[in-house]
Design brief:
Length: 324
C-alpha cells in the first residue's frame, strides 16, 4: 500500500489543488519523457486513439467520464493532449505488435513493468509546478510512491482530483492507519464530520516543512484556524511558544481538546514541585478535618485552569501567571 493527495487551507478556506491535479496547464506543459527514462518507448510510434479503444473497450468506457477524456478528446490544448490514450501511456506500436509483453507500453499498476519514476514522469509532463513544486525529494517520492497510488485517472471515483478512493481522507488512510485510528478517538479533528480533510494541513505532493505541512511549522499551521492563540502576548507560556504539540495531539486524543493528558497531570509534567505558584502542585489529594485524605477541590472541573485560565498567554498586566 502507498499514500495520499491534497487541497489547501487558508484559515479554514480550502484552496483546491485537487482540481489542479486533474487538468494540464498549457503554460506548464513540458516535453515528453525521454526514452532513457522510459525504455518501453524506444522505437515506438503513435497508433491513434481508435486502435487503443478497439481492444480496451471497458477501460475506455470508464475513462471517457473523466476530465482527462473530456479535455483530450474534445478540447486538446497541446499536440500531446490530442494523442488521448498515448498522452499518458506513450506511443503504442510496440504494444500492438506484442500485446502480451507488459514492457512494451507504459502502465500504471503496482505490477507494472514501468518503473515508478517512469510513471511519475508521464504525469509530470503536464502536472508540474504549483502544488507539485516540491515533489522531487519529498517524503512520498522518497518512499517510492507513484502518482497512480493516490490518483486513478482511468475512472471518476471521486468528485474531484481523480483520486484512488472516493475522498481525500480515504486515499490517505490506505497507508496512514495510525492516523485513521486516532481520528476515531473521543476528541478528534473534525475530519469525519466534513469540516476538514487531511490535505488541509498536509500537502502530499511535497513541502519544505516536516510532515509535509502546509506551513513553516506546527504553530503557524494551527494559528491559521486558532488565531486567538497566536498572540503576541505580554506574558507568553513557553511550551505554547515552542510547539502546540507539547500539549495537544494533532489528530485525536481520548482527552478533551486533543490534550496529551488531562489536567492536572498535563500541567504536572512541568510544574511537579511544591511552590512556584504559592501552593503545592500535587493537587490530587489533601488532608481533611478527620485525619484522612480527600480530593483537592482545585483538581475538579477544569483543574489548574480554574485559576490559570489564560494558559496560552495573557495580555493583562497582572497575568504573569496566566490568571487573566
Amino acid at each position: 500500500m502507498r499514500r495520499a493527495t491534497p487541497r489547501r487551507l487558508s484559515g479554514l478556506l480550502i484552496l483546491t489543488i485537487l482540481t489542479s491535479a486533474t487538468a494540464c496547464s498549457p503554460a506548464a506543459h513540458a516535453p515528453q519523457s525521454s526514452s532513457s527514462e522510459l525504455p518501453a518507448l524506444d522505437g515506438a510510434e503513435f497508433v491513434g486513439h481508435a486502435v487503443c479503444v478497439a481492444c480496451h473497450t471497458v477501460e475506455s468506457s470508464h475513462w471517457e467520464t473523466t476530465i482527462h477524456a473530456r479535455r483530450f478528446l474534445h478540447a486538446p490544448r497541446t499536440p500531446l493532449e490530442a494523442r488521448a490514450c498515448e498522452s499518458c501511456h506513450g506511443p503504442g506500436s510496440l504494444h500492438v505488435a506484442a500485446p502480451s509483453d507488459p514492457g512494451r507500453i507504459v502502465s500504471f499498476t503496482r505490477e507494472s513493468a514501468t518503473p515508478t519514476a517512469g510513471m511519475n514522469a508521464m504525469c509530470l509532463q503536464c502536472h508540474v509546478g504549483g502544488e507539485r513544486l516540491h515533489w522531487h525529494g519529498s517524503e512520498h517520492e522518497a518512499q517510492g510512491l507513484a502518482c497512480s497510488d493516490c490518483h486513478n485517472p482511468m475512472a471518476a471515483q471521486s468528485p474531484s482530483g481523480l483520486l484512488a478512493r472516493e475522498s481525500v481522507n480515504e486515499t490517505c488512510f490506505q497507508c496512514h492507519a495510525e492516523q485513521r485510528a486516532a481520528l476515531r478517538l473521543r476528541g478528534h479533528m473534525p475530519i469525519d464530520e466534513g469540516s476538514l480533510d487531511c490535505a488541509d494541513c498536509h500537502n502530499p505532493h511535497g513541502a519544505t516543512s516536516d510532515a509535509l505541512l502546509r506551513a513553516d511549522d506546527v504553530n503557524a499551521l494551527c494559528f491559521e484556524c486558532h488565531a486567538d492563540k497566536r498572540g503576541p502576548f505580554l506574558w507568553d507560556h513557553a511550551p505554547v511558544v515552542e510547539s502546540c504539540l507539547n500539549c495537544h495531539r494533532p489528530h485525536g486524543s481520548p482527552h478533551p481538546n486533543l490534550l496529551v493528558s488531562r489536567p492536572p497531570f498535563l500541567c504536572q509534567q512541568c510544574h511537579a514541585q511544591p511552590g512556584g505558584f504559592g501552593h503545592p502542585n500535587d493537587l490530587m489529594v489533601r488532608g481533611n478535618l478527620f485525619g484522612g485524605v480527600s480530593p483537592d477541590e482545585r483538581a475538579t472541573n477544569r483543574s489548574c485552569l480554574n485559576c490559570h485560565g489564560q494558559i496560552h498567554g495573557s495580555n493583562h498586566p497582572s497575568g504573569a501567571r496566566f490568571h487573566r
